[in-house]
């Protein structure tokens, strides 16, 4: 597990974007909880890597399972339009795969109909991250901004 702080995140994510698919197993970023600015920095950096995304290799899984998940719900679109639109574009280019914890959704009174089409739900975010690491061979990047 890599721990990154401050400005080193930007350089690490640029490296991640450039060498993103050096390991075909894939990578994931655990986003919970992060501020809008921190999520924007992650998306901006990954946006710069669109041309480096090799076809047929897995997208980075971006797991939402804390307060930041509110930003990716339909009823909060107007307040988070730029962030959501950028995430949707990155998902369309298969740079990221946005997932949200269904347990978090249930605890906060949301259902799948509250999600955008590019956001998928998983039963338990932490368990999915563990499954990606143990069964799929994904690498975790823990980001401390």
Question: How would you summarize this macromolecular structure in one to three sentences?
Answer:
The chain is of the alpha/beta class and 145 residues long. The chain has helices at 8-18, 36-47, 81-92, 102-107, 125-134; strands at 2-5, 27-30, 60-64, 96-101, 119-122, 139-144. Helix content is 35%, strand content 20%.
Description of the molecule:
Helix 1 packs parallel to helix 2 and helix 2 packs parallel to helix 3 (81-92). Helices cover 35% and strands 20% of the residues. It is built from five helices and six strands; from the N terminus they run βαβαβαβαβαβ. It has a six-stranded parallel sheet with strand order 1-6-2-3-4-5, with helices on both faces. Residues 1-24 have low confidence and may be disordered. The radius of gyration is 14 Å and the shape is globular. With 145 residues, the chain is of the alpha/beta class. Strand 2 (27-30), helix 2 (36-47) and strand 3 (60-64) form a beta-alpha-beta unit.
What is the string of helix and strand elements? EHEHEHEHEHE
- Tell me the major beta sheet: 6 strands, parallel
Question: What is the rounded Rg?
Answer: 14 Å
Low-confidence stretches: 1-24
SS content category = alpha/beta
Strand arrangement across the biggest beta sheet: 1-6-2-3-4-5
The coarse overall form would be globular
Straight-line N-to-C gap: 15 Å
Number of helices: 5
Write down the overall mean pLDDT: 78
Fraction of residues in β-strands:
15-25%
Percentage of residues in helical conformation: 25-40%
Tell me the number of strands. 6
């Amino acid at each position: 597990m890599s721990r990154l702080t401050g400005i080193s995140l930007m350089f690490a994510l640029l490296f991640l974007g450039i060498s993103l698919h050096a390991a075909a197993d894939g990578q994931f970023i655990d986003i919970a909880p992060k501020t809008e600015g921190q999520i924007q920095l992650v998306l901006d950096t990954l946006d710069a890597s669109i041309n480096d995304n090799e076809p047929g290799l897995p997208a980075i899984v971006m797991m939402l399972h804390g307060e930041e998940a509110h930003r990716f719900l339909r009823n909060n679109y107007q307040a988070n339009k730029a962030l959501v639109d950028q995430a949707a574009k990155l998902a369309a280019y298969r740079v990221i795969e946005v997932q949200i914890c269904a347990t978090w959704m249930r605890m906060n009174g949301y259902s799948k109909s509250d999600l955008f089409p590019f956001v998928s739900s998983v039963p338990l975010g932490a368990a999915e991250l563990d499954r990606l690491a143990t069964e799929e061979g994904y690498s975790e990047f823990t980001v401390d901004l």
